[in-house]
Design a protein that fits this description.
The structure holds two protein chains of two kinds. Chain A is 76% helix and 0% strand. Chain A has 35 helices and no strands. In chain A, helix 26 packs across helix 27 and helix 29 runs parallel beside helix 31. The longest helix of chain A has 26 residues, at 3-28. By secondary structure, chain B is mainly alpha-helical. Chain B is built from 33 helices and no strands. The longest helix of chain B is centred in the first third of the chain and has 19 residues, at 5-23. The chains are: A mainly alpha, B mainly alpha. The interface between A and B is large, with 121 and 111 residues.
């Protein structure tokens, strides 16, 4: 081939290559909105079709906002509908914000606030002067709150003035805006804001205002903020807490050190620990080193903070929290174990059961006990299946009691049947609780069950629990049933239970059953005991309780009992 | 080798010619000084489609033109377009911002930085960190997150750690995932499925969009999520499934491990089912012998769409021949009262409550009081009307105080006047509520109002609320204690003030107030015990008391 031919071929190839390169490059650098939108639509997976709809309604909003809004509101998916309506709202807000606000009447109640928020935000963002003027002249700012939030960056003081006009205790959104504006002001000028607001901050509004200042101030200068919060007169533990909490979001251990600097003053690891730990974990501080650092410290406050940390860590990363327990057995206390297992078992009892094998030996028993109790509460049958693996192991009976104890409220019939048929010995409180819950569900079945139990002690406890609760929920039915039992010591015990129970919940007149006692002495003793209990009710119930008890004095024939009862009533008055 | 040279030369020449022909001004375009034709860089959101193009030949603007543009949205758009000439850096933004009305400068700056993120993320982050205050940084980051979600979300995720303030970092990450999931849920799924989840944060805000997009896919990945986020993801996914097919969702919920989450979701699914398809839902509840919790959930749902049917079901359950059904229904009666009180229509609330009273069940009366207090907070006037008609059934000091406090927030005049519609023994509780609301916002007004009453229980109630309000603020005017008509009223107020001071760590002042003004020995002992508990550190009950009772 001649050189000139080669040259021509080369020229053509170069031209084609350059053309292709530029075409691809051009495709990479799309700049027009339509091209971008089309590009986005092309590249979406099947589940990403929603943006196409958003682009369509946005395009229409530029020329026909009301129709675009209607189009958006007709979208079936609630999520896409909300997004599309908000998109229209933003475009309309730039063109004619007042018309956009008025169009909210077209929006169904469930989506209206999202739509209005979008209008307000965009209007305020693009046209601060117009929005401020509108808000300042408005009779209500309920629909404008999100826009005013945006303007805190522009002029927090002006937002504060507007919010203050409408601030009232029943308006949590406006109160939040008001305090956000305070934060905005303090973020720009802490000293000026303190000087200006300390006179406004009185009564119930004082602490929220001081807390807002503290939050903004501590983000700028934690030490200065702490010094200010400690100098506030009268003291404000809430403001002090806020400073320490803000520090904790960056460094929990620094916050702990700060806590040590403010002994007393209403701030302690007990009152503040949960908030500090939450802030630290939200700030993505790794939990394990924090736990280890707190564990080696001996101060009680560090232990409290560690307990709170373990509690929340277990909720987020149960496996890691248990791994820390395994590696730090020397530091474990019952309280720490309880903090870890409590939430895991509450949220997912089968996970807590699975993790039991990884818990260090010294904490195993406590862990299993908590798991058994939660199983009983949520799913007693699944719990029994789980418990079977521990049969014959030392401590099995305690686990069984814990499981049944957990189930006694949620599945009393299940527990009742187990108590009746297993032949095992059970704790008195378990029998009482089961009887009490059972009779609430089914009085007839509960009384029959209590009478059926072979073991006389268990049967007596069950009857006591049944009568105690039944007399509170349906006193007349309980009385009829007790009086239908054979006269004698057993019935006297039930009458006594009923009488004492009515001292708290006045469903039975003690005088009406006094004659039913087979033993007059028992009746007298119970009546005196009734009066004693009637004087020990909470203060809010005391007047009514004494009014019921006083007429009973004349029924007490024993002068010693009577004198004691009179003295108790007098002392209570 | 010599043979290939003509081909190489030819290729180079051909490429050059085509490049010059096709890319024109890209190769040697005019400088900004010569031809100021500003064009916006890629718009950050589809909403930008509606903006005029200030770069087109007939809308060329300069800095001098900016003040004359009357429409704020057009002015913003023109100012942003000018950045292509003056530069997207701090100097350029300053120059353009200076041409705008002062009040618009901050939002313009925020807008410019956020848009800069579309082409130069690092520069945008640097500009954010240079902003003078936290609030401006926060707002800019929220807007930047939306832009980056549309342009390069993965790079934005990698950049999260650059933000040095924990709360801004969280806010940015949350906004980023939220915006990205709303636009491209499929890509967010792919990202989360392949990411090291221990390094991913703040995806909670995206869960709603992900669940709406593909709940099954979200459920499939919950095992890889951090435990607390997994719980939220499961809830979001199942709530989305409930929307689509409540019966199927209920079957899924049944397979969840036992625990509080399952109970809550079960009730929520049952409620949604009852609302969407009342008869099918009730049939399901009967056929599956649903737990009382789920059955109650179905009735709550039906109450929203067909209150008469819901009541019919409740009656049938309460009169069932099956003891367990009756007992289970009674156990959740309070939930039904709550559903009635939360009905959208005020008429449905009134009819529902009247029906409940017709049951003549003392426990219903007790349940009602709490719920009517909640109703009073929402719609005090309607709650008041109904309560006044039924005072003999629902009369309680707490309810009247709550009603009056709620009404005073929305209609103070009506709240004051209502005192005269009440029987004498109900007025004190009412006065306390009005006084409480007044004291929350305006202590002086609360004080004047209290002293409008003659000496006696109503004035005492008003003064008590003023003292309570003052104690919250940390100071107290001791002369107020002289205004009480009885020792017991003075003692009660002093006790509440002393406990407040003790909660705020001022035990000495608390003891002083208690000793000086509490004459009731038992109350004094009780108050001193409370103060001591505060001094010793917190018990749970004490902490609860400080936060919610005082």
């Amino acid at each position: 081939m001649k050189p000139i031919v080669r040259f021509v071929v080369g020229t053509c190839c170069g031209a084609v290559a350059a053309f292709l390169y530029l075409a691809v490059d051009s495709a990479r650098s799309l700049t027009s909105p339509t091209e971008l939108a089309a590009d986005r639509t092309r590249n979406y997976a099947d589940s990403d079709v929603a943006p196409t709809v958003l682009v369509s309604t946005s395009e229409r909003a530029a020329t026909e906002p009301l129709n675009a809004l209607r189009e958006a509101l007709a979208i079936e998916s609630a999520f896409t509908r909300t997004n599309a309506s908000a998109g229209v709202a933003r475009i309309w807000a730039r063109q004619d914000p007042e018309a956009a606000l008025a169009a909210a009447a077209e929006v169904p109640a469930a989506s209206r606030s999202d739509y209005l928020d979008a209008v307000a935000r965009e209007w305020a963002f693009v046209d601060p002067a117009g929005f401020f003027a509108y808000a300042e002249a408005a009779n209500s700012i309920d629909e404008l709150i999100d826009g005013l939030e945006v303007l805190i960056a522009t002029d927090p003081q002006r937002v504060f003035e507007i919010a203050a006009r409408f601030n009232a205790p029943a308006q949590p959104d406006i109160e939040a805006l008001y305090l956000h504006a305070v934060r905005g002001m303090a973020g720009r000028d802490p000293a000026g804001t303190i000087a200006r607001l300390q006179f406004i901050a009185t009564g119930a509004q004082r602490d929220p205002i001081l807390v807002s200042i503290a939050e903004a101030y501590s983000a700028i200068d934690a030490k200065a903020a702490l010094a200010w919060a400690m100098s506030v007169v009268p003291p404000s533990p809430d403001a002090l807490s806020e400073v320490i909490e803000t520090v904790a979001s960056g460094d929990l251990l620094a916050a702990y050190a700060m806590l040590q600097q403010v002994p007393g003053g209403g701030v302690s690891a007990g009152s503040l620990g949960t908030a500090l730990v939450e802030a630290a974990l939200r700030g993505r501080q790794p939990a394990a080193p924090l736990a280890s650092a707190l564990a080696v410290r001996a101060e009680p406050e560090a232990v409290v903070l560690l307990t709170r940390l373990m509690q929340q860590w277990a909720q987020r990363e149960p496996e890691n929290a248990v791994a820390w327990m395994a590696g730090n057995e020397a530091y474990l206390t019952d309280e720490l174990t309880s903090a870890v297992v409590f939430n895991i078992a509450f949220e997912d009892v089968s996970l807590a059961a699975e993790l039991a094998d990884r818990v260090p030996p010294s904490a195993q028993r406590q862990w299993l006990d908590a798991v058994a109790n939660r199983y009983g509460q949520f799913d007693a049958e699944a719990g029994m299946a789980w418990l079977a693996r521990y049969e014959g192991v030392s401590g099995y009976d305690k686990l069984l009691n814990s499981l049944l104890g957990g189930a006694s409220r949620s599945s009393p019939e299940f527990v009742a049947e187990y108590i009746e048929t297993s032949g095992a010995l059970f704790d008195r409180n378990l029998v009482l609780r089961t009887a009490s819950s059972f009779v609430e569900q089914n009085p007839e079945a509960a009384t029959q069950w209590a009478m059926r139990i072979d073991d006389t002690e268990h049967s007596a406890w069950a009857l006591e629990g049944v009568v105690d609760r039944w007399s509170q929920t349906d006193g007349s039915a309980a009385t009829r049933w007790v009086l239908s039992q054979p006269r004698g010591a057993a019935r006297d015990r039930l009458l006594g239970t009923m009488m004492l129970s009515s001292a708290i919940s006045p469903s039975i007149d003690p005088a009406a059953i006094l004659d039913a006692y087979a033993s007059e002495a028992t009746g007298q003793r119970m009546l005196a005991e009734y009066i004693f209990r009637a004087t020990r009710v909470p203060r809010s119930m005391l007047d009514d309780s004494l009014a019921r008890a006083e007429p009973l004095l004349e029924l007490i024939s024993d002068p010693v009992f009577r004198q004691q009862a009179e003295e108790q009533i007098a002392a209570a008055r | 080798v010599h043979g290939i040279l003509p081909v190489i030369f030819g290729s180079v020449l051909g490429a050059l010619v085509v490049t010059m022909l096709l890319s024109g001004d890209r190769v040697d375009g005019p400088s900004a000084e010569v031809m100021p034709t500003p064009q916006r860089t890629a718009p950050s959101t589809p909403d930008a489609l509606s903006q005029p193009d200030f770069g087109s030949a007939d809308t060329v603007v300069t800095l001098k033109d900016i003040p004359s543009i009357t429409d704020p949205a057009d002015r913003r758009e023109a100012a942003l377009a000018l950045l292509d000439i003056y530069g997207h850096d701090a100097a350029g933004i300053d120059a353009v911002a200076a041409s705008l009305p002062a009040i618009e400068a901050i939002n313009f700056r925020i807008h410019a930085i956020a848009d800069l993120g579309a082409t130069d993320m690092q520069a945008a982050f640097a500009a954010v960190m240079a902003l003078p205050d936290h609030e401006q940084r926060r707002l800019t980051l929220l807007r930047l997150a939306t832009v980056l979600a549309a342009t390069d979300p993965l790079a934005a995720i990698a950049a999260i750690e650059q933000i040095d303030s924990p709360d801004l970092e969280t806010a940015f990450a949350a906004a980023l995932f939220d915006a990205w999931a709303a636009r491209e849920p499929g890509r967010v799924f792919s990202y989360l499925e392949s990411a090291d989840m221990s390094t991913v944060s703040a995806i909670e805000t995206a869960l709603g969009a992900l669940a709406a997009s593909d709940p099954e896919r979200l459920l499939a990945m919950v095992d890889d999520l951090r435990r607390d986020i997994a719980a939220l993801a499961t809830t979001a996914a199942l709530e989305s499934l409930i929307e689509r097919d409540a019966a199927a969702a209920l079957a899924r919920i049944d397979a969840l491990p036992p625990g509080a989450d399952r109970s809550r979701l079960e009730r929520s699914a049952a409620e949604s089912y009852g609302e969407k398809n009342p008869e099918a839902a009730w049939e399901w509840a009967m056929a599956t012998k649903a737990t009382p919790l789920a059955a109650n959930g179905v009735v709550r749902g039906i109450q929203k769409v067909d209150p008469d049917r819901a009541w019919e079901i409740m009656l049938s359950q309460l009169n069932s021949t099956n003891d367990q059904v009756r007992a289970g229904t009674r156990e959740y009666l309070m939930n039904y009262v709550n559903a009635v009180v939360n009905s959208e229509s005020p008429d449905d609330i009134v009819i529902g409550l009247d029906r409940l009273l017709s049951l003549n069940d003392p426990r219903v009366d007790a349940d009602m009081q709490t719920n009517i207090q909640a109703w009073a907070n929402r719609d005090p006037e309607a709650a008041l009307d109904w309560s006044l008609r039924n005072l003999e059934r629902v009369n309680s000091t707490g309810l009247l105080t709550s009603l009056s406090a709620g009404l005073a927030r929305t209609n103070i005049d009506l709240a004051r006047d209502t005192i005269f519609r009440l029987d004498a023994e109900q007025r004190t509780a009412w006065a306390a509520g009005v006084g409480r609301t007044l004291a929350e916002t305006d202590l002086a007004a609360a004080r004047s109002w209290a002293y409008e009453f003659p000496s006696g229980p109503m004035r005492d109630a008003g003064i008590h609320e003023v003292i309570r309000g003052e104690a919250h603020g940390g100071t107290i005017d001791r002369q107020l204690f002289d205004g009480f008509s009885s020792d017991s009223a003075r003692s009660e107020a002093a006790s509440s003030a002393a406990r407040r001071f003790a909660c705020d760590g001022r035990a000495a002042l608390a003891r002083e107030i208690a000793t000086a003004y509490i004459t009731d020995q038992r109350l004094l002992e009780e108050t001193e015990r409370g103060i001591q508990q505060n001094s010793n550190g917190e018990t749970f009950a004490n902490s609860f008391f400080c936060q919610f009772t005082l």
